[in-house]
Amino acid sequence: MWKFSYKEYTNDNASKDIEKDLWMEIKQNGTKPGKIRAYSMEYSPVDDRIYLYGGHDSRGNIKSDLFRFDLKTNTWDVVKTKGKSPDKRNYHQMSLINKNHFILFGGVKGVFTRYEYMYNDIYLYNINDSIWVSPIIGGIQPSPRFGFSFCNNYNFGKIEIMIFGGITEETEKGGKNNNNNSLKVFALTESGKIRLQLF
User: What is the pTM of this model?
Assistant: First the structure.
């Protein structure tokens, strides 16, 4: 794990050797996630920790653990969660939607082209209570997908998640519903409904 001192990077020191002067390796303590890929990771300003979920290792084992990294002590630990947690998956996305909740969407169970299942489910994680819930979502549900773009508006007074593109079963079959070439944006609103926006 490395950190980049972006606050020290200005036009005045742009000629510095970035690799040597502005990058620093972090000595990690605790129970590390291990060598994995295709996980999702997000920062929580509430407790100043980074949360990591899912992914797969070099043997193709799919993970369902939720790890958190304390930025003050540089320590990893596995979160003991309550409620209905997401299935094992990778190539999904996770994002903070308000001060106390992450949202997780999509992904696959398997390794890229050799997957067992493609997801379009949504989970909410309560940071303060360490609880996963699977809410009932109305509106236009995005088709199962992975490799998509996912973001929110970071306005804590309003919840809105944007989902763009990705690989779906139709995409892989070469069908007309190729989300990589479309301008479809799905937005999950605070009312708990998903709407489709066309651009």
Answer: 0.84
Residue that is written with structure tokens 């007074």 in the block: 157
Nearest residue to 106 via CA among 43, 60, 59, 150:
150
Element (H, E) at 150: strand 149-152
For residues 100 and 83, the answer to whether their CB atoms sit within 8 Å is no
- Token duo for residue 140: 């236009």
Q: Can you name the residues that pair with 102 across neighbouring β-strands?
A: 96, 125
Element (H, E) at 20: helix 18-21
For 134, other C-beta atoms within 10 Å of its C-beta total: 14
In the CATH hierarchy, which top-level class contains the domain 32-198?
mainly beta
- 104 strand-pairing partners: 94, 123
- Site of tokens 């804590």: 156
- Ranges of each domain in the chain: 32-198
Cα(9)–Cα(136) distance, integer angstroms: 45
Q: What is the pLDDT of residues 35-53, one digit of tens each?
A: 999 999 999 988 999 999 9
Average pLDDT rounded to a whole number, residues 62-73: 96
Phi, psi of 91 (to 5 degrees): 55, 30
DSSP string, 46-109: TTTEEEEE--EETT--B---EEEEETTTTEEEE---EE-PPPS-BS-EEEE-SSSEEEEE--EE
What are 78's two structure tokens? 């596995």
Q: Which helix (H) or strand (E) holds 43?
A: strand 40-44
CB 104 within 8 A of CB 119: no
